[in-house]
Amino acid sequence: MKRLITAILLVINHQLPVLAQWTPELEAGFQERKQQYLSKFEPGKYGSTAYEYEKQSYPRAMIDFLRGNREQAIAFLQSEDFDSSKNGHVLGFDFYSGFTLKGQIRKYFGFGQFLNPSYKTRMRQAMRIFTTDDPLTHHFPTPRKFWENSQDDCDTWIDCRNTDNLRAMRETSAYLMAEEAGNERTRQIYKSRIAAKVRSLYMIGQGEWDSEAYLGHGLTTYVNLYDFAKDEEVRAIAKSALDWFTITGALKYWRGGFGGPSKRDYSDGNCVWCSGASRALGLYFGDSPVQDNTQDSDLVHLVTSSYRPPLAAVALAQKQFTKPLELLNSKPTYENWKPGGSDQPQFYETLYFGNSFQLGTLAQGSGGDWNGFKLMAYNSRRGVDYFIAASGSDADKISTSSQGNNAIAQYQNLAIWLNDKPAPAVPHGGNPQDRTASPFQFFLPKSAQIEILRGNLFIKLEKTWLAIAPINLQFGAVNNNVKRYPDDQILTATATGKGISGFGLEIGEKESYGTWEKFKRLILINSQLKVGDRVEYISSKNIRLKLQHQGRELPKVWRNGQLHDWRWRSPPQASHYDVYKSDKPLIYQGWKSGKLNLRILNAKNQQFNCK
């Protein structure tokens, strides 16, 4: 079976060169993970072609083909579409949804040599009809659904939705169809749109930045363009997009986990291999003690592609750089293509890498569909542990749960979180226990050792230690029944006063504090928490972090005595506008600079560069 799969993949990959000069060891690791991936799926079960369900069914059929069940898989891939009666304008083919289009593209270009010649000819004719003009300019009489209960329906021939991942599916698919059909005007339209979108990555970043749910979809979409475009300039644009996604994704990938602040975070990715981002990146980066046993059919686009990330991205993902290290990054607005949407960042991120952990926060905290506080810590058995704080009460949405207005300050291994939703007053004659107090939640592994000493909460993970100093906050019950996470728990807390509430955090490890006992002792003896109009945390090593809550505005933050300026400043003045900026040579992308630079010098004095 393994030899058969390898032989088939050599054909599917179209003999495209591996542009990144991977070592034989890296390629062997990728091939091993590919074989493990293909072996996980049950043969012969694909699903439906109704609506956009080809999102799952086409990749599953392709996987079954690669496993050797070629006749059944090809029969399904070229079977009459369930919705063919709705698609008479394109000879019965379904070219509507972005997810369906992505599968149609790899079916035609990647598996086309195995399709019936008459079927492939008819599909090419459909592509010619579809792209005679921009399919976005053609309309159905009434909107069409993407699934039974979808609410974001379109009346255009092609998916009109504009999330970053769906837009990429639309534009890359329309481009490849127009190129194949010889519709040059439409090809040029979509080449221009693709180039503009990829250029924006190197200017301000991605609107759905670092999404645990959608980063993988970006990768599996642009590999279609990389693998199948005939125009070498377009292939280079596709590679630029893929390099940007794998490099920036590598920052938050670690040992099979994906952590740190993220946009469009649905709280599904807070364990190793739980997020689409970690599964996609993990095929390339590996470096986890845990095998990925999930069935993510979308990854068939990656295992049948010749694309490989730059070596520097691999080194970054495997954290082969000198630590500790801090980054000050910015994130754009979601709809940044609208007028004024790219004028300034919306989110300001701090990332800190210790020897056994990485912590990321946003100045605005969590809320909406974004996470603003997430820590990953080394675990020899699980890969990483997650520690997440939230100011709301929804345990099922621990990544984004929020009440009131949040403000976070971070300086290296220190953080302060403040929330301005006070505990409600007790009605006259009422029972204080009946009031609904402002809640906090702390997500952590059940294996963690927890102690409360002099009011401070101490948490011991395998190699990482946390000290939490409460601010008008009382620790409460533990929820041991967390949906999706049987090995984790949520410690609850409630506000005790009418003012702000929150906590100060100090993180320790062997390299900086020696032992767990010494860490606790230093915290109890030396650390200070000063609460007033401004909250100041003085660490056990006399490092100062101060935060002033500003309601819905950006907070005022003093990092070791220096007032932090969020505004644009011309170099060499300090600025938090840069898309990526490390405090030691590692990674840099200036706001609207059009360039991403990565330089890594690892412990073996091996240097990796990517520009």
Low-confidence stretches: 1-19
Our estimate of the beta-strand percent is 15-25%
Q: Give me the count of strands.
A: 29
Supply the helix-strand structural class: alpha+beta
Q: Share of helix among residues? A: 25-40%
Order of adjacent strands in the largest pleated sheet: 6-7-8-10-11-14-19-18
Shape: elongated
Rounded to an integer in angstroms, the radius of gyration calculated over CA atoms is: 25 Å
Oligomer: single chain
Structural overview:
With 611 residues, the chain is of the alpha+beta class. It is built from 15 helices and 29 strands. Strand 24 and strand 25 (562-563) form a beta hairpin. Helix 8 runs parallel beside helix 10 (232-252). It starts with a helix and ends with a strand.
Short description:
By secondary structure, the protein is α+β, with helices and mostly antiparallel strands.
Key descriptive features of the protein:
611 residues; alpha+beta; 8-stranded antiparallel sheet; elongated; disordered N terminus
